[in-house]
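Let us work through a complete example step by step.
Step 1: write down the sequence.
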Amino acid sequence: MGHERKDFVFTSESVSEGHPDKVCDRISDSILDEIIGHDPMARVACEAFATTNQVVIGGEIGFANKTTISSLSEIVIDVVRSTVKDIGYEQEGFHWKNLDVINLLHEQSADIAQGVDRDGAGDQGLMFGYAVDETPELMPAPLQYSQAILKRLSTARRNELKGILGPDSKSQLTISYKDGEPNSVKSIVVSAQHLDEKLTSENIKELILPYVTEVMPSGWLRSDTVWHVNPTGKFVIGGPDGDAGLTGRKIIVDTYGGAAPHGGGAFSGKDPTKVDRSAAYAARYLAKNVVAAGLAKKCVLQLSYAIGIAQPLSIYVNTFGSNSVPEEQIELAIQKCMDLSPKGIIEHLDLLKPIYAKTSAYGHFGREHTREGHFSWEKTDLIDDLLQKIG
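Step 2: predict the structure and record it as tokens.
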């Protein structure tokens, strides 16, 4: 792969749950949760579009149990309103109570169902997983801390900054690397929606500074770190009223912030028979366990699938020269440790649960797994098995 640079800068961005595209991701995943909470074997591909006081829902659903949900339209409308309310939109151009919701969901194509029902992949495609030892979560630092900033501001706007900050925000970090390790923040960009029109960019910087400092590693924010807070000035009109939103438009924010390749498939609104989602989770799980096991300091893992075919067509591992054993051995060990058919992934990671709304903002990776099954792909419970299979 050639020589790896040791001294460089790298930038990643994040967006909050109030960003228009994330509103749509959350709606899609909340509808998915509602449906598989009733019918775990349902097939769901749910897309959302949001603009001024309007949300349009479309896509396909295949119910395993036809009697499970008698009134889908009512449920969809309720989920949309409760989701937008929870995010916090009560502005004139986008208010949970006044939204016009159009539901265009329909039955899944029987041609697609016949392949998936035989435990094949729900579509062709390629998926990447990535892990790197530069943060405790084994995630690339620019993305991990961009997400952390906005997550902390989200908690603040619901508590001590309630009535001051709005739901829509974005962040971007440019991090300097020295000798291959993240070292300091070269520049930081934060755009935070505010409810008081009189607040200036400088006011917003003063408000957010303690929260940004709290989540950043000690010493990374320096006197020469360049700050751009609300660089356009006023940011009062936010969310889908200011900019239309669409499900699946933040795939780099959802994954590795550009630090690793991406197969192109979005996650939100898709049930786990869709390998765009489940195989990307499996690839992250495997890459993370490879790094956690000390087999490499950095690992990219690619899987590829064909519609209706159960096992992956290819498995590829690249450790950028950081490996302690040959990459071919890692590839073989991975195949011995986990069944990478959609059915095998679903069973191993326990994915037939309403766990997806929590994934829809602040990244699908680098999160804490829960007893309820959220983020099961972040566990490092494969270390011993991998080391044993490596021999």
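Step 3: interpret the result. The chain is about 30% helix and 25% strand.
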